[in-house]
ABC transporter related protein (Thermogladius calderae), 515 residues
Amino acid sequence: MRGIVKRFPGVVANDHVDLKICRGEVLAILGENGAGKTTLMNVLYGLYLPDEGEIHIKGRKVLHRSPRDAIENGVGMVHQHFTLVDDLTVAENIVLGAEKFKVFYDLEKLAKEIDEFMKTIGLYVDPLKKAYELSAGEKQKVEILKALYRRVEVLILDEPTSVLSPIEVRELFKTIRNLKSRGISVVFISHKLDEVMEIADRIVVMRAGKVVGELAGHEATKQLLATLMIGSRAVNIEEKFGKHVRPAGKLLEVVDLWVKGDRGEDSLKAVNLVVRKGEIVGVAGVAGSGQRELAEAIYGLRPAWRGRILLEGKDITRSPTAERIKMGVSLIPEDRLRYGVAAELPVYENIYLEKVHLEGRKSLLDRIGLRVLDKKGMVDYAKKVVEKFSVKTPSVFTNAGKLSGGNIQRLIVGRELERKPLLVIAGEPTAGLDIAATNFVRKMIVEMSEAGAGVLLISSDLQEVLELSDKVVILCNGEVMGVFRPGELSMEEVGLMMSCAKRMSKEEVERAWGT
Ligand SMILES: Nc1ncnc2c1ncn2[C@@H]1O[C@H](COP(=O)(O)OP(=O)(O)OP(=O)(O)O)[C@@H](O)[C@H]1O
């Protein structure tokens, strides 16, 4: 890629970028939120036409007007948000849209063909499973297989590990090494320095739309990478967050909670849970163990068919979400693009969304159902949140969907924390955030708890859960496997519980909640 320039209203996302990708290498692209990584790869993948610059593949100048052009030229991309069709099988998803795909086909024959294809690649998912039955790791495998089926030679993975459990990350790395040995080039976008240093042959660092540094994987140190990414500003890459407050009375109590998942299965079974004022309770588990359903049930987005949810002793099991918000419950949803923002609304309206519930019915007009919004007040408030949480956006009038992934996350975290909730349900609050923003959000969460709020911290980053939480609960298959304080169990025991291979007795769990 030579001299790539891509401008959006108010920002130069890529500012004369040169980038070389060699055959059979793993190239990592690092950079702070909004540095321009995804834009550059979207240009390569034909999602955006650059304003200036050229792309050459194997010495030939190409023009990628659409992903179809890119795929034809051997470039594939797996986005952070998967694009599989839920109701189709793995085999159908892999061939869907490929040139060889026919409208009429024999599913069994197709499955057999795909079965063989997967075996030659060394990457396997049951071809007859429906996409909705797959775990995040399996979905990602299917996305990779989909690209490989189209014979791509360059595979772009945008933050591929942010949705994976530690075991799935190991598997992905095995896959990447396997692809490399077959001469396929992998572009790896990530914020996790350990992962980048482990897997990358070469690392390119971007800052404010420009490439500011390049080094070989084996030369990299965390400090070096952080300095390149952030420039002269100092950043503490291993910042620790100690908590100095003792949890007080019960804030949230979940009693014998049973909740159905999207497919009617029991995704939470007899879950008991207590969050005290000033306490951070971490929820750990392999993705898809019931974490999302737990968050949604407490926030009122998913009904409980058995059990009770109490907030400060008041039964809110059947209360609508709006009422829970008024009572001080706040949610940072894990699927931020789908549930976190209204992409077509400007930043300021997104920030104000929940405050509308909070302010109640003030005027007469309000009471007859006509709400008068104070636009200047909304804009001023949004500006304050944007500044405090360093949301990078051309202005508060820009549509939220136009922000980079990390900046959307900052917006949501800012909106939720700024209204000083009583209970914060934080789903993957630091996924996709750069080092500075991760530190900032962790610090905010600790500060909120120190100010007396209760926090339910749901995170697939086990290190994060162990570091921040007063107590940790492990979910597997929708059941509580254990409750403990960080340090009380070995990592091995934690791992066994995460895979349902070990569970604490009922009495032990009850005792742990009681303390
Ligand atoms: N479709 C778009 N319209 C307007 N602005 C955009 C669009 N896509 C990206 N931008 C802007 O371009 C800049 C670079 O965004 P990009 O998504 O490439 O960053 P990134 O390095 O991938 O960040 P992150 O780590 O947060 O995902 C940001 O300021 C973003 O707001």
